[in-house]
Automatic annotation (TrEMBL):
<feature type="region of interest" description="Disordered">
    <location>
        <begin position="360"/>
        <end position="405"/>
    </location>
</feature>
<protein>
    <submittedName>
        <fullName>Single-stranded nucleic acid binding R3H domain protein</fullName>
    </submittedName>
</protein>
<keyword id="KW-0547">Nucleotide-binding</keyword>
<dbReference type="InterPro" id="IPR003593">
    <property type="entry name" value="AAA+_ATPase"/>
</dbReference>
<dbReference type="InterPro" id="IPR034081">
    <property type="entry name" value="R3H_AAA"/>
</dbReference>
<dbReference type="InterPro" id="IPR001374">
    <property type="entry name" value="R3H_dom"/>
</dbReference>
<keyword id="KW-0067">ATP-binding</keyword>
<dbReference type="Pfam" id="PF01424">
    <property type="entry name" value="R3H"/>
</dbReference>
<dbReference type="InterPro" id="IPR045735">
    <property type="entry name" value="Spore_III_AA_AAA+_ATPase"/>
</dbReference>
<feature type="domain" description="R3H">
    <location>
        <begin position="541"/>
        <end position="605"/>
    </location>
</feature>
<dbReference type="Pfam" id="PF19568">
    <property type="entry name" value="Spore_III_AA"/>
</dbReference>
<dbReference type="Pfam" id="PF25516">
    <property type="entry name" value="PTPase"/>
</dbReference>
<dbReference type="InterPro" id="IPR036867">
    <property type="entry name" value="R3H_dom_sf"/>
</dbReference>
<dbReference type="GO" id="GO:0005524">
    <property type="term" value="F:ATP binding"/>
</dbReference>
<dbReference type="InterPro" id="IPR027417">
    <property type="entry name" value="P-loop_NTPase"/>
</dbReference>
<dbReference type="GO" id="GO:0003676">
    <property type="term" value="F:nucleic acid binding"/>
</dbReference>
<feature type="compositionally biased region" description="Polar residues">
    <location>
        <begin position="360"/>
        <end position="378"/>
    </location>
</feature>
Amino acid sequence: MLDPKTNNFSKLKILKKKPLLLMPQTFPSHRMQITDDLNQLLDILPPQIHSIIEQHPNRNQLVEVVMDLGRLPEARFSQGAIDLGNTPVSKEDLQHCINRVGSFSGDNRAGIERTLHRISAIRNRTGEIIGLTCRIGRAIFGTIAMIEDLVETGQSILMLGRPGVGKTTALREIARVLADDYNKRVVIIDTSNEIAGDGDIPHPAIGRARRMQVARPELQHQVMIEAVENHMPEVIVIDEIGTELEALAARTIAERGVQLVGTAHGNRIDNLIKNPTLSDLVGGIQAVTLGDEEARRRGSQKTVLERKAPPTFEIAVEMLERQRWVVHEDVAETVDNLLRGREPILQIRTVDENGEVQITSEQPQTHAPSSLSKSVTSVAPDRPTGWRASGRMTPVTPLGTTHKNGKTLDFDRMLEQSWLHQEPVTEKVRTPGPNGEDLPVYVYPYGISRSQLDQVVELLNLPVAVTKDLKEADAVLALRSHVKNHSKLRQIAKGQQIPIYGIKSNTIPQISRGLQRLLGIDDPKLPEAFDLRLFTQGGNDDEIEALEEARLAVEQIVIPTGQPVELLPRSAKIRKMQHELVEHYRLQSDSFGEEPNRRLRIYPA
């Protein structure tokens, strides 16, 4: 159901002047609702086609109507297609439709005002329209239940999938949920008016989100940057990132700390890695020459493929089917595994007949290494091969009881241990603290970046141990939005008498303050501890030097004089650290220039 505070539900009913339709059988009807304004699309069709569709029993499952000159019109449903009558489409039929829709833009798409329908044209060599694809646009409320926990984390999400699987519908619902339920400033870059509908007034399905239209498809990257510079969004929603300029604009936006939610051409992450235009979305790919020792350690050739930079999108969702999605919560780890010939562990999310989300993990297939690594590097298999690994070699001196075939049990055990290394099972170890308390404190992070949490614990030397088991935790550190919207977490913590400490955002300063409050060592009267190493990833001299440059610029120029400052050119990784440091001072910053001279500009408050 729509949030009654936004009043979007009543707006939709007034617009349609009929009750809201239930979801077809392919969706759990008690969990989702759908509105499609089907009558407004049927009104643009020729009368003979209109009447046939209107009388069809499955019209609510209609996907699109195809009209090609000289051929029979066709209605396509989710389960197949049928011909609409016995009369071929004429030029008058096509013109009948063209006269009743908006103007066709540069990408040969038009729409019906205040609806989500899309009419796409096929032209001949002289530019005359000889075919139309009338696609039904539907607003489906509740379709992102499978990934709502990921949407609210604030991390950037990339949606992948074949055409027609529901990427645009999911984007529309994500924009509405973030704007209405989480009160975020959401801006939609609507290149083809497909997300928020045709016309100047956006469709109520996007809630309180704002929509920016694009004059021509090739200008989408400019509108993306304009949205960040002029309208102060917390979230930007983009449909169909397809060019190198758009990928570069997406990285620029991500460096500014704005959450991105977008779609890209490709069914799986493998497709993006192989696509030189869009590979930057997942970090980019480069060839690296390894030293002899490192090549021997990896069991590979000296020239290998590696990820060039941090991914623009931290999370990727592969929409295999409408109710079966594969989630990669750490795109960097997934890409690294694929490039090294290892199949990543797949997190599969589905919705059962009762509308409940089921999350399962599919183990990688060790016998089929990724094809990405074959062209450049020969990656060693998970288990060794050769005479010893075949099991035909027996020890000279038996070590224990032998089998009938002469091999010993001890030798089998040693052979297995040579390639299977499991982490030892450890128990909680406690030592008394200065005030008699038990240390370390075991913390269960929920929605918190593990790498940033470990970095804060290490640099501040806090007596904290991170656990993945809620039953072993002494306290929970979570984002306040998670605690507010997840009653299940509160119930479990209350039942096990585990306190929950909430922080506002997933940043290093917030994590540091949360841990200090958890340990009872924070004092609001004292100035906040400040350590540049908190904002670094590797802690090397280059990172420290770049952060020190940004700190001096802020404290000695920007704040005292109110003048903007440009820093020295840095890599994308280091610029992101500088952006976080500037945000710590509650100032704005921007990246500009072309690589390798791309640099940071800091603005006064």
